[in-house]
Design a protein that fits this description.
Layout (H helix, E strand, L loop, with lengths): L1 E4 L1 H15 L3 H18 L7 E2 L8 E6 L2 E7 L3 E9 L12
Helix pairs in contact: 1-2
């Protein structure tokens, strides 16, 4: 399946990496690389993630990695990466287009 990153997801990854880089630039780079590797696995195993509890729709799924949620939407032949968010943050469902 084809992977497409939303602008919001890219922006969030960038913001989180910048925050991590304040103290540990090498850790920020490792974190970003790991996020992209986890998402790449979805192209082979698209239903790997759990259904997002706030949305309750089988097409909206998430992978939990450490303190972060990688939220994505399954479409016919595409996986749309919607956002990456810290697990303690409230998920603004209105930011996710259904």
């Amino acid at each position: 399946m084809k992977l497409i990153w939303s602008p919001l997801a890219i922006e969030r990854v960038s913001e989180i990496a910048e925050y991590i880089a304040w103290d540990k630039p090498a850790a920020a780079e490792k974190w970003v690389n790991k996020i992209f590797r986890l998402v790449e696995i979805l192209s082979k195993f698209p239903e790997r993630g759990c259904i997002v509890p706030e949305i309750k729709n089988n097409n909206f799924r998430e992978i939990i990695w450490g303190n972060y949620r990688i939220i994505y939407k399954l479409e016919k032949s595409t996986i749309l990466i919607l956002m990456v968010r810290h697990g303690r943050q409230v998920l603004p469902v209105e930011e996710i287009n259904e």
